[in-house]
């Protein structure tokens, strides 16, 4: 197939990846705006390069004219989660969607690969609205924790370096690293509530400090430098202790000062 044809072939897949990234990043943003724990931490996506498509098609004896029907991961979306149970929350989100059809699922977390690879894969059929009509394409979701993703990225690099013939000694170390990464995920899940509380507290403090600084800048802009400096010194003192109620009280003081001026 000519280069031009390959470039045209990629168009619906590129569009699908961009659309799906936007949709799932929006879900993350929605959770955050509601002050709820988002099961989605990061979303990335890619379209397979031509060389990778041909290599995989050759490996599985897929004729070029059948690639779009039988090669399921030309369009790939990767969703990273903080915790293992978040993975299954994301799976449920995908199952409930009306804008795609699930073809099948592979749970490599329950059914771990011999290499140590863990991830949850979902193959979907996704309609893309093109200039000349709707084009249905296959896309693959890979849902995993940050630790699983780090391990998988390293393994992928080593497979590329050794042309899928990684020496046994390195394979053994990789398997040990995979087990250690999953142990870390399991231990983090056990203290999830404490981690989430700490993260929420950090977000609250950051928001309060941001609002206070905006008010201080507003005072400076209106020429009230003495008050601004006083509030800045109070903020510095409060930050050393880091108590939320003190930050909240300081915020109200700056708001009151601005209101009096108006």
Short description:
The protein is an alpha+beta fold and 262 residues long. It contains nine helices and five strands, in the order αβααβαβββααααα.
Estimated helix fraction: 55-70%
CATH topology of the largest domain: Beta Polymerase, domain 2
**How many strands, which pairing sense, and closed or not: the largest β-sheet?**
5 strands, mixed
What is the count of helical runs?
Answer: 9
Number of domains: 2
Class from helix and strand fractions: alpha+beta
- What is the CATH class of the largest domain? Alpha Beta
Description:
With 262 residues, this protein is an alpha+beta fold. The chain folds into two domains: 3-167, Beta Polymerase, domain 2, CATH 3.30.460.10; 194-261, no CATH class. The chain is 61% helix and 17% strand. The protein contains nine helices and five strands. The protein has helices at 3-33, 50-59, 67-70, 84-95, 146-161, 168-190, 192-221, 225-241, 244-261; strands at residues 42-47, 75-81, 101-107, 120-130, 133-145. It has a five-stranded mixed sheet. A hairpin with a 2-residue loop joins strand 4 and strand 5 (133-145). The mean pLDDT is 90.
């Amino acid at each position: 197939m000519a280069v031009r044809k390959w470039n045209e072939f990629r168009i619906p897949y590129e569009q699908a990846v961009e659309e799906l990234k936007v949709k799932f990043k929006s879900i993350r943003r929605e959770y955050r705006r509601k002050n709820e724990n988002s099961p989605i931490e990061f979303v990335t996506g890619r379209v397979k390069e031509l060389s990778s498509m041909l290599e995989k098609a050759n490996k599985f004896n897929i004729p070029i004219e059948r690639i779009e029907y039988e090669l399921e991961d030309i369009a790939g979306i990767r969703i990273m989660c903080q915790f293992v149970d978040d993975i299954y929350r994301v799976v449920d989100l995908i199952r409930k969607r009306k804008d795609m059809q699930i073809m099948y699922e592979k749970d490599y977390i329950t059914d771990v690969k011999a290499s140590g690879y863990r991830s949850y894969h979902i193959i979907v059929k996704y309609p893309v609205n093109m200039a000349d009509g709707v084009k249905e394409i296959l896309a693959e979701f890979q849902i995993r924790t940050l630790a699983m993703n780090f391990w998988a990225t390293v393994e992928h690099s080593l497979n590329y370096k050794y042309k899928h013939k990684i020496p046994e000694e390195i394979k053994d170390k990789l398997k040990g690293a995979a087990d250690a990464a999953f142990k870390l995920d399991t231990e983090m899940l056990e203290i999830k509530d404490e981690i989430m509380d700490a993260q929420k507290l950090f977000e609250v403090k950051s928001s309060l400090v941001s609002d206070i600084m905006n008010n201080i800048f507003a005072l400076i802009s209106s020429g009230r430098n003495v008050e601004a400096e006083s509030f800045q010194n109070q903020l510095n003192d409060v930050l050393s202790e880091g108590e939320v109620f003190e930050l909240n009280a300081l915020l109200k003081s700056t708001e009151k000062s601005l209101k009096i001026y108006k």
